[in-house]
Predict the structure.
Amino acid sequence: MQTRNSIIDDEYKITALYCRLSRDDGLEGDSNSIATQKKMLAIKANELGLKNCQYYVDDGYTGTNFDRPDFRRLESDIKAGKIGSILVKDLSRLGRNYVAVGIYTEEVFPMYDVRFIAVADSVDSQEGLDDMLPIRNFMNEQYAKDISKKIRSANRVRGSLGIPLGQPLYGYIKDPENKNRWIVDPEAAAVVKRIFRLFLDGKGSEMIAHMLSDEHVLYPTEYWRNKGIRRGGRKTYNDPYRWNDSTVSKMLTRQEYCGDVINFKTRSLDFKHKARMDNPKENWAVFRDVHEPIIAREDFERVQELLARGNRKISKYKGGNTTMFSNLLYCPDCGRKLWYHTNTINSDIHFFSCSNYEKDTRGTCKTRHYIREDALEHIVLGELRHLAAILKKDEVYFAQLLQAKAEMNLAEKRKTLENELRSVTGRKKNVDSLYEKCYEDNAAGKIDDEWFCHLSAKYSSERKQCQDRITAINEKLESLSFSQKSQDDFISAIRSFMKVDKLTKPLLSELIDRIDVYDTVGTGKDKTQKIVIFYRFIGEFWFQNNDAYELTVDPQKGKVVHYSVDSSAETA
């Protein structure tokens, strides 16, 4: 007898009883259940006197491809010479891909001397494969194609009605009384709220992931498993508390946390290819305020603004401490962020400079935009204290200032949108004329049908793009209005500052959207530097002449020397 390390003797080869079931087979009732398949295959193996039976089961896997865990294990055992026979209930259990099934039954199994039996189809390779086998395989594939069409059609109807097509996000569960509705899962929702809060407080996704891991917060997949909720996802983590920054980043972009349902975000190529591909946003179906929100919409939109600026990695200097100004400072010349540095000679001096400065990073920015952290802190603190003083002195007047600024911003936005609307409308009229001329030239025989089809498709596409843009601009124009809530939020944030009268990262995140740091101009005592602060709710603030004040800061030494604020928020 040959050793088991070489070719396994037939007496010891495995009789593989392969079972498969997917949701595509659900319409066929209990006849295809895994339990039924196991029982039928065990009886048949016993009738044929086949020994050493072993089950290979793929429950919940489509037959249109062969990327199934237990089938891959079976395939590996076949190539290792361990398998003597394979039994399936019928050919469709092996698969519903006409070409692939044919390759296995006609090439792979004979190559490894594996006997193949499909019980219900009366197929036994030991007796020879009949000519009907390819036809059965073809019909099985067509069945899968037909079922796929029905499922797609049903999903299209359900999705168009606002019924969520996907599984609930981490933070939600299905309503026990209505499977088509999501309800809040309080335990997971608390983690989601904390992630958004930490991000708004200035923490990056990587730092948040480390914090959750250190605090032993269960990773979403592990959380679901611990709760007995069957969900997909990676199951190979050795550490159930291991969060990663990609998971946090993805959660921060999920609009569903505002209470919305978003369907058709992804699509599959066809019934044979189950991999999901991103769907263009214009094909999404968005239904607002369907379920209870976990995150306030304004907080979600603020997070998207911050994410749009790029990766929020927290700047650190030697010693590991972070700056409260991380992700707030920008170069107005090139638009890049300012980086945080520590002076190599005096480690107590911390400063910012443009991350695109040509002499430091071989970038394209010609000037450094240097400013010390302590100088910047004096400037921002001085302006906030001045704002607080105006608010404390006359709240009505302060509110009038905010309203005047808001109305000016609205007028500027309206003017910009109206100019764009005129431009797009003019282009659409030109395209309409070109389309009509193209049609007339084709009718007159001046251009052939092939060229007409090319041009008409081009102009039709551009007409649609123009019309979509016109609709979007008109919607924005209609939505432009003074926001009392923004004004109230700004005043509330200033009041929060009045209670502590010092700068903190959460306060800056609540109040300030960005700070533009210009490069210094002049020399010696005549040196000046412009700093523009853009606030979250109102943009750039400006003061009336009688509210102007002075605060002197030497941006090189970080000492208070002189600082004046006028309508352009310019420092000198």
